[in-house]
Amino acid sequence: MAPKYDLGYLPSVDGSCLYRDDGTTVIVGVTGPTDVKTSKQLSSARIEVDFGSYGTLNQSGKRRMILLLLRKICESAVSVQLYPRTCITIIVKALSDNGRLMEACINATCLALLDAALPLKDIFCARTEVWPAENEPIAPTSASDDGDDRPTKCAMTFVFLEHSLQDVFSCFTDGSFTLDQLRVSLQNARTTCTETFRSFRSLLIEKYNLNPS
After folding, report:
1. Is the domain defined by 4-208 classed in CATH 1.10.10.10?
2. Could you count the other beta carbons within 10 Å of the beta carbon of residue 144?
3. What is the largest CA-CA distance in the chain?
4. Which Pfam families does the protein's record reference (predicted)?
């Protein structure tokens, strides 16, 4: 089933997105740029990312990794040089996780930034590929999902920019894998992200009545 996106979900922020995909639900809100008189970054905006969750999402290491990756991606993708002495704040709330949390957080953040009308050098999206102990890539599952605790060998999250799909913008891996598994995962992720970019554009065209051309 394709992910579902709801732009403008939070009325109190400049941009937001509710992202739901097969048991993984994330809300991202964006505020700014706001003036920061004491900012040491005089020539560009500072990106701040706050990650919060509830329920079974208690892996502090996983939260820190997602926070760090999101900040690095946004610092590269957002045209921060247009807003000196300001701060752009991104708030991420993970409501549930069925194995694609990093992918969901990255994709929801991109849509929230677009909803906030912040200028991006390029739009980005992510795809997570998971391998079990053997056989072909599978959809990620969590131990809390109906008691399904099938062992996984590795997980790979790839981030792409729309206009340079042949290159990997960022990558995070967890576990051990072969070179062939990496190649298969990369190709699968690139194909999926190509479709994701199309769905992003269709969503924006429909919501804001844009000219497709």
Report:
1. no
2. 15
3. 56
4. RNase_PH (PF01138)
Omega before 33 within 30 of 0, i.e. cis: yes
Query: Residues near 208 by Cβ (< 8 Å), separated by ≥ 6?
Result: none
Q: Could you write out the DSSP letters of every residue in 7-76?
A: ET--TTSSEEEEEEETTEEEEEEEEEEEE-TT-S--SSPEEEEEEEE-TT---HHHHHHHHHHHHHHHHH
**Is residue 155 within a helix (H) or strand (E), and if so which, with residue range?**
strand 152-161
- Model-level pTM greater than 0.70? yes
pLDDT tens-place string over residues 173-209: 988 899 999 999 999 999 999 999 999 999 988 887 7
Q: How many residues would you count in the chain?
A: 213
> Residue 95 carries which DSSP code?
E
The terminus-to-terminus CA distance of the chain in angstroms comes to 28
